[in-house]
Amino acid sequence: MPYRLPEDGLEVTRIRCHAAVKRAEAECRVRRRSYRWAVSLATVVVGVFVVLAGLEYVGRDTEFTSPHYEKLMSMMENAPVDVVYDMSVDAVEYYEDVSML
């Protein structure tokens, strides 16, 4: 033989190779676990963002619930008929659409 091995050299080499394989597998598991946590955290952040955006949208005043609409309606109650007619003369009503000429 061109080289010398101690009595238990092959056994030690086999144990070291087995340990190296297990160490690589463990690193891969840790990496996969960290990816899972990162994806879960990103999902939670996006979910919270969507919920907050939805709450902001629900809390926003719409065209018919804003205080400006209420003020306009109170002003329209006291307005003369000819003023109301002049304001609405350009409105043409179609089947489901109201457009201004």
Core attributes:
mainly alpha, 2 strands, single chain, 6% strand, 3 helices, two-stranded antiparallel sheet, 70% helix, 101 residues
Question: What's the short story on this structure?
Answer:
The chain is mainly alpha-helical. Helices cover 70% and strands 6% of the residues. The protein is built from three helices and two strands; from the N terminus they run αααββ.
Strand-helix topology:
Elements: H1 9-59, H2 67-78, H3 81-88, E1 91-93, E2 98-100
Antiparallel strand pairs: 1-2
Question: What does this molecule look like?
Answer:
By secondary structure, the chain is mainly alpha-helical. The protein has one domain. It has 3 helices and 2 strands. The protein has helices at 9-59, 67-78, 81-88, and strands at 91-93, 98-100. Strands 1-2 form a two-stranded antiparallel sheet. Strand 1 (91-93) and strand 2 (98-100) form a beta hairpin. The longest helix has 51 residues, at 9-59. The model has no long low-confidence stretch (mean pLDDT 79).
